[in-house]
Specification:
alpha+beta, Rieske Iron-sulfur Protein, Naphthalene 1,2-dioxygenase Alpha Subunit, Chain A, domain 1, 389 residues, 9-stranded mixed β-sheet, 26% strand
Length: 389
């Protein structure tokens, strides 16, 4: 492979320009499937959660018949966001501004002074905008379009039949984690799929594998990481994994084989990490050209129960966690014993360098276990923006 094939494709502007991010919001994030939670997060009719999806805010709820539904969180009167956070609805969604009301299937029911103020209004045309929803192995994925250009089955593609290692019914959830990091979302993504750094930056945490002991494979638009050294290392941020380390191990059959998928990067914003006894899903959300929010939820095998079982965990999943920022840490990220904080430290250091006119990417390490995945990722970003690599 020549170095022409393994080279930085995105210009510096892609990592710092508000205009570039706006184009990505339109072309990538407002047209993307992303992880929204578990089906079991919403147990009873009326349970709801508000979730970001690109620039959109979406409502995921369980309707009176027990079906999950997804809508845009936008009142059809003058656009007020209808709901916040999570909670339980009665039979209706009522806008706080002028009290237009909708049923849990999204239909507009009525409004104050309907006859006097809105005579002849076609209420049937003013139901909530639907979003698309797909359930997969207990997980819920949302897409802002009611009829996405790429159906979920096509987006998830070949991964649908692959080894997704855990059954949530047998797992307990760790407290969720919420990070805000001062870097462009692509720097974070590129770091996730960079197999070259694992043995070096994470020498004292993950401790490997070495660059040639891991492989990234392409599955459609997604990337799947395998260690040829086998599974077994913790894949969770230390904040969650510490509790796990206290108890005995339940290995999943076949998990030690070299083909265990340790990380699945679902383009553009969902990352699944798995070990023989843990499972985590992270989603990223760009807040600005140099600011990214990352939410991580992690689960462990129930035999190694963390925090009192599933009901306690589901309560934790409902609560909005405190935001973790590097500048608030009381120790250096490299002394945190947490590979996630080590990663964020590097991402922010690169972002600061990008502000300098002396910044450039000198070279990228060839090979599917090294930095070639960065090029595959950048190619997709350029494709989505209508530019050629
Ligand atoms: S904006 Fe919702 S009722 Fe007016
Ligand atoms: Fe890393």
């Amino acid at each position: 492979m020549s170095d022409l094939q393994t080279r930085q494709l995105l210009p510096v502007e892609a990592y710092r320009s508000p205009d570039w991010l706006e184009r990505e919001r339109q072309a990538i994030f407002s047209r993307a499937w992303s992880f929204a939670g578990l089906e079991s997060d919403l147990e009873a009719p009326g349970d709801y959660r508000v979730l970001p999806a690109g620039q959109a805010s979406l409502i995921l709820l369980r309707d009176q018949d027990g079906a999950l539904r997804a809508f845009h969180n936008i009142c059809r009167h003058r656009g007020t966001e209808l709901l916040e956070g999570c909670g339980k609805l009665g039979r209706t969604i009522v806008c706080p501004y002028h009290k237009w009301s909708y049923d849990l299937e999204g239909a507009l029911l009525g409004m104050p002074e309907q006859r006097a103020c809105f005579a002849g209004l076609d209420k049937a045309a003013l139901g909530l905008h639907r979003a698309a929803l797909a359930c997969f192995k207990g997980m819920v994925f949302l897409h802002p379009d009611a009829e996405p250009a790429v159906a979920f089955e096509d987006w998830i593609g070949a991964l649908q039949g692959s080894l997704w290692p855990h059954d949530f019914a047998e797992m307990s959830e760790a407290p969720p984690l919420l990070y805000e990091t001062r870097c462009n979302w692509k720097i974070f993504f590129e770091n996730v799929v960079d197999g070259y750094h694992l043995a070096f930056l994470h020498e004292n945490t993950l401790g490997g594998p070495k660059p040639l002991e891991n492989v990234w494979e392409r599955h459609g638009r997604h990337l799947v990481w395998y260690s040829t050294e086998g599974g077994g290392k913790s894949c969770l941020p230390a904040a969650a994994a510490e509790a796990l380390a206290q108890s005995g191990t339940t290995r999943i059959k076949g998990a030690e084989s070299g083909s265990y998928p340790g990380v699945i990067a679902l383009y553009p914003s969902t990352f699944i990490t798995a070990s023989p006894y843990e499972f985590a899903v992270s989603t990223l959300q760009p807040l600005g050209p140099a600011l990214t929010r990352i939410r991580t939820r992690g689960w462990g095998r129930r035999e190694r129960s963390w925090f009192g079982g599933s009901s306690a965990a589901s309560a934790q999943a409902q609560a909005e966690p405190e935001v973790i920022r590097l500048e608030d840490l009381d120790k250096h990220p490299m002394e945190s014993a947490d590979f996630m904080l080590e990663d964020l430290w590097i991402c922010e250091k690169i972002q600061r360098s990008i502000a300098s006119r002396f910044f450039s990417v000198g070279a990228l390490a060839e090979g599917p276990g090294c930095e070639s995945p960065l090029v595959w990722f950048q190619t997709q970003v350029l494709q989505d923006l209508g530019e050629t690599a």
